Structures
1.
Amino acid sequence: MASNLPQPLDAGLVPRFAGIPTFMRLPTVTNLTDVDIALVGVPWDGGTTNRAGARHGPREIRNMSSFMRRVHHVSGIAPYDLLRVGDVGDAPVNPIDLLDSLRQIEQFFSTIHRAGAIPISAGGDHLVTLPIFRAIAKDRPVGMVHFDAHSDTNDTYFGDNPYTHGTPFRRAVEEGLLDPHRTVQIGIRGSVYSADDLDFAKAAGIRIIQMEEFADIGVAATLEEVRRVVGTGPTYVSFDVDALDPCFAPGTGTPEIGGITTLEAQQMLRGLRGLHLVGGDVVEVSPPFDPSGNTALVGATMMFELLCVIAEAHAQRRTIASEQPAFAEN
Ligand SMILES: [Mn+2]
């Protein structure tokens, strides 16, 4: 079975520093019906309000993803033995036109969604999650596990501009794409524009686990709360690398000190096993602020962590669907 599925380049035959860099050294896939999980780049940072550069994220994450191997060392999950996974390339973008980019990204992800594949994406700034939601959540809202230093639920910037990387989840709630009652934000911290910055999110019903609360209750209790909030419904995972302390991930546009460690973040992603996961992304890796490449390595590693839990969830749903067609559900 496994031999029929796309596999990463064999590091025993082709050394990790050789070859054309794709996500996880997987084959490039042009026919979207050939994959169950589509690894996608979204090289766009037109929603960035401060330090730009995340448009270069997908290329560097692809490069550093050559460090990933085939099997998860804790869970034992071997994603490439479960499902067809491939690198479907980058969403088309327009670096000088925000609205055109949102349209093009949505269109690309709609094609992936219609083909029946689940997207795991590398941004790009955090606004890219909005057109992804417009593509994959238009039939029913999704819940979300959201790692971030910022709630990204502000209203407008620079006058009345509704689309920045500080606003995607307010728009997603307004558009009925994101169910706020099934949304949990982890790691929120840092100074705010005004004391009422989080009022919209709280009033909408989003569960905010501020960094200070996370530091108090720890990984296990946070995971319990995550499970309580998102339940069994379709759930998306969005991982902004600025959720991490900048000593682990300095290469990002809006760093905030006092953040999550890489190990804590990995433990939390591993703890999402068994949820009804329908996609995910890693955003805000900004290579111009990442001279060592470490933030891109962190991004690639979190993408692999996501891939493992999402592949397992998707494969289990498939098995259930094939045994009990009445319960088939995307
Ligand atoms: Mn964010």
2.
Amino acid sequence: MRNGKSMSDTEQFGQIRNERIRARQRAERRKRRRRKMWITTGIIIGCIIILFITTWQVIRFLKKGKTEPVIEEVPPPQKIVHTPPEYDVQLLSINEYSRPGNPLEEVKGVVVHYTANPGTTAQQNRDYFEGLSLSGETYASSHFVIGIEGELIQCIPCQEIAYASNERNADTIAIECCIPDETGKFSDATYQTLIHLLAWLVGRYDLDTCDIIRHYDITEKACPKYYVEYPSEWEKLKKDVSLYIEMNGTVEEPVSDTEEHE
Ligand SMILES: [Zn+2]
């Protein structure tokens, strides 16, 4: 019995030891499985992130390709009207009221005015500006005056400022237009000369038709009256300038012929 009991103890001891070994082995297997699971999960997450970034980049590239044309559009060559309408140069004498003689250093626009004096001629308006040097009643002038018959007089050289357009005197050319009646609408002859003169000035100073403005656009003064009251007529006038350039301009480089003009 003693011997038997002793054997049983040894067996028990062996069993316990074996169970412990198996438990340790099970725990190690669990540990290995868990480690493997974490590694697999990490790899899967990594793959998902890489796939997501790649897809996003591809979509971005495709979208970019659609919005930005590969070939840049070449703008059509700008046509230029090289010849101005015929005009009579009758420069004012230098005086503080109508021709200060100050340089016009840069031309960024052309301002259209009306005389607000129905029935008067270009000559009368030019002489009125000249008369200011003696009367001194106000400060006023214009580079050009267009008469009802379409006649054109230059009063101030384009290299000097005129007293016509308030704060824009410093960077614009001014054109006064005579009117036949109170409506302020330009006669056909005045209109034709104006369109030709504007077309030439746009090319001469490398401007756009949107640089042709009314006195109204600077000060909100109703000048030129008809083209303030009827904005669509003003838009038509600018379109007529574009059309004139398209019909009569050439794509040649500007030549120095403009330098012979005042
Ligand atoms: Zn004006």
